[in-house]
Amino acid sequence: MNSLPLPSETEVVAPNFKRRLSGVTSTIVQLVPLQARILRIAALGPGLPSHLPKLRFRDLLRFWKRPATRPFRIWHARRNLEMLPGIVMRDLLRMPLRLVFTSAAQRHHTGWTRFLISRMDAVIATSARSAAFLHRPASVVLHGIDLDRFGPDGPVADALPSRLVVGCSGRIRHQKGTDLFVEAMIALLPRFPEWTAVVTGRATAEHSSFQSDLIERAKAAGLADRILFLGEVEDVAPWFRRFDLYVAPPRNEGFGLTPLEAMASGTPVVASDAGAFNELVLDGITGRVVPVGDAAVLAAAIEPFMADPTLRAEAGRAALAHVRSRFPLQREADEIEAVYRGLWSEAEKSPSAMSTRR
Is residue 347 part of a domain? Predict the structure, then answer.
């Protein structure tokens, strides 16, 4: 499939209206090239990498005419500010569009968001937990990851070569549970002198005092040289290969890809029951899933993996097999395409559905 479709030929649009890098942007950047192999798809919005097939905003003027190969185009929104323009184009400007929305939120939506979602032609939820907060049927499509980037083979971070490493990655803030990880490490590291704890990820200005407090707590416990804050690393994949155990302790999470990235690297995972983690980690097989917000329970789940290399190796092998079989990025692309094809098929079977809006 041509990776740079003409605007008049575009079948699917993936809008991205936030310039700042986010999980949504990362999803679009990873999925669109795969989808472009079989669909005429293009992204739309600022700050997107040059290798993506993209539209300009003025290209939307071509959308009053249907693409030659489809009864309508699909506008796949992932945020409120992307749903609204789709509704305007379809309902007010009468463009032949159908609207798809992906929801990752695990909370009750505002009235405005519920209204926008009610106007979608199809809804995708990134987990069963997310789907439970929607007031309409949704297709559950769990995220996948790039198994070419995340895997046991490849460069390994060369810091701390002689140590066992327990890692925690992501933005440093209360929501992400970085303090729970530090508390657990303060409890465990004195009993496991061969281990070091590593935190990768940045603290924004508003959370800098939170990080400073954690550093001071590690120092007060005499562990400043064994609880290391490395900041934002250029590429986290070599660190997932270096970690002997990965901990994901968020109090709240939309989906959360880091457990998948760690498991794809052959690393067992201890995770809180946040985001989609209980749908990603096989408790007792690829790691453990524990209640949110309890540092003592988190430490108790981590301890057996620090103590037993056989347990770590078995869980790491199971984790790798699990992710390779269930979470390749191509599987996510295929399941999203099935949602698109369901909309197109419905229109092709029903002439009345060819109108811009029922």
Answer: yes
What is the domain extent for residue 131? 7-144+329-354
Structure tokens at 123: 């809804």
Query: CATH no. for residue 202?
Result: 3.40.50.2000
For residues 239 and 258, the answer to whether their CB atoms sit within 8 Å is no
pTM of the predicted protein model: 0.88
Distance CA(68)–CA(330), nearest Å, equals 26
Claim to verify: residue 290 and residue 345 sit in the same structural domain? no
List pLDDT tens digits, range 250-289.
999 888 899 999 999 999 999 999 989 999 999 999 999 9
Residue 63 CA to residue 97 CA, distance in Å, equals 8
- CB pairs under 8 A, 24+ apart, for 344-348? 344/70, 344/71, 344/72, 344/74, 347/71, 347/72, 347/98, 348/71
From the list 158, 145, 126, the residue with the least C-alpha distance to 264 is: 145
